[in-house]
Amino acid sequence: MRVVSGIQPTGKPHLGNYLGAIVNYVKLQDEAQAAGGECFIFLADLHAISQPHDPAELTQNTREMVATLVACGVDPSKTILFNQAQVPAHAEMQWLLNGTARMGWLNRMTQWKDKAGKNREGQSVALFTYPVLQAADVLLYQATHVPVGEDQKQHLELARDIAQKFNTDFCPPNEDGSDAPLFTLPEPYIPPAAARIMSLRDGTSKMSKSDPSEMSRISLTDDADTVMKKVKKAKTDPEPLPSEEAGLEGRAEAKNLVGIYSALTGQSVGQVLAEHGGQGFGAFKPALGEVLVETLRPINERFMELKDDLEALDAILARGAAQAREHGLPTLDATYKALGLVRG
Ligand code: ATP
Ligand code: MG
């Protein structure tokens, strides 16, 4: 079992990152260990430069992201935790796979369409080729399980397509006729609930670090007052909560808040509505706020202890990077070789 996933240090991680991805990093690091496998979690700093950014902020966000992940339970003694920039094999592998990825495949990526908007010509080349780097990230380590939110499912499918085409084009069968694929096809590991937490300002767009409005998301490092304020101001409709799940259809904001409550408490949506159905948001929002504050309290406390020890945070990344470089080497070498590239 090889678990591989990444998160961009593009800002403060939020509730969507937590419920969609980070809780599964923590769960899978233990499962991988129990199965004698490995778990790799990386900060996707090479992805982060695909959009305009401030270098000093990127440096700070990178360290804060390490502190937040550790505060959430990612344990550097169980997980190989590192940043891409210290493992050149990610960038090398992307270039090697650029020969296999097709323009048409990338053109169909909804994240590219969403992030580029109407101004495609003005976007960086990196934003367009982003999914090839993502394929490189997971194929380099022969990932079997990739814990991600729903929004990354399409990129994972692309990684599988790239792996499959490379295996077909460059990996001749063994002498006995059996297949000799170089790349393992990675499987997405997407939580059944909470795979897509929506913005607090607009129930039709996902909660994102890159949303310009702070009020659109709950950051994992928000204090209790901020959390309560954001929940209180969250967009809703004027109707009370329904008592059955079907009543949430067509009510994107209500559905999102109930979904968050359900994910945080472990109750099903049906149970949440059985308890809170008939309540207006004036009553439900404070209840949700409380649950959020209780979830974030230990994360906040741990984050505050960790965040200023830059030496310790950098040491975690350096140690993880050394391990990652070693693990990635055999596949990188085999990829160069399969392509017929001559190296010393
Ligand atoms: P950005 O806006 O810079 O792209 P992001 O909030 O989308 O930031 P990423 O670093 O791109 O965060 O994604 C990290 C992980 O969090 C991915 O596995 C992604 O699928 C997951 N994720 C991101 N947003 C959500 C969300 N709203 N709900 C559930 N999972 C999410
Ligand atoms: Mg994203």
Automatic annotation (TrEMBL):
Organism of origin: Erythrobacter longus
GO CC entries: cytosol
Highest taxon of the lineage: Bacteria
PROSITE patterns per UniProt: AA_TRNA_LIGASE_I
Record-stated family: Belongs to the class-I aminoacyl-tRNA synthetase family.
Residues binding L-tryptophan, per UniProt: 137
Alphabetized CDD domains for the sequence: TrpRS_core
Places the protein is found: Cytoplasm
Official protein name in the record: Tryptophan--tRNA ligase
EC number, as in UniProt: 6.1.1.2
Signal peptide positions on this chain: none
'HIGH' region, short sequence motif: residues: 9-17
InterPro entries, per the entry: aa-tRNA-synth_I_CS, aa-tRNA-synth_Ic, Rossmann-like_a/b/a_fold, Trp-tRNA-ligase, Trp-tRNA-ligase_bac-type, Trp-tRNA_synthetase
Role this protein plays: Catalyzes the attachment of tryptophan to tRNA(Trp).
Presence of the UniProt keyword S-adenosyl-L-methionine in the record: no
Assembly description: Homodimer.
Motif position, 'KMSKS' region: 206-210
Reaction(s) the record says it catalyses: tRNA(Trp) + L-tryptophan + ATP = L-tryptophyl-tRNA(Trp) + AMP + diphosphate + H(+)
Gene Ontology biological-process annotations: tryptophanyl-tRNA aminoacylation
Keyword Ligase among record annotations: yes
Binding annotation for ATP: 8-10, 16-17, 149-151, 197, 206-210
Alphabetic keyword roster: Aminoacyl-tRNA synthetase, ATP-binding, Cytoplasm, Ligase, Nucleotide-binding, Protein biosynthesis
GO molecular function: ATP binding; tryptophan-tRNA ligase activity
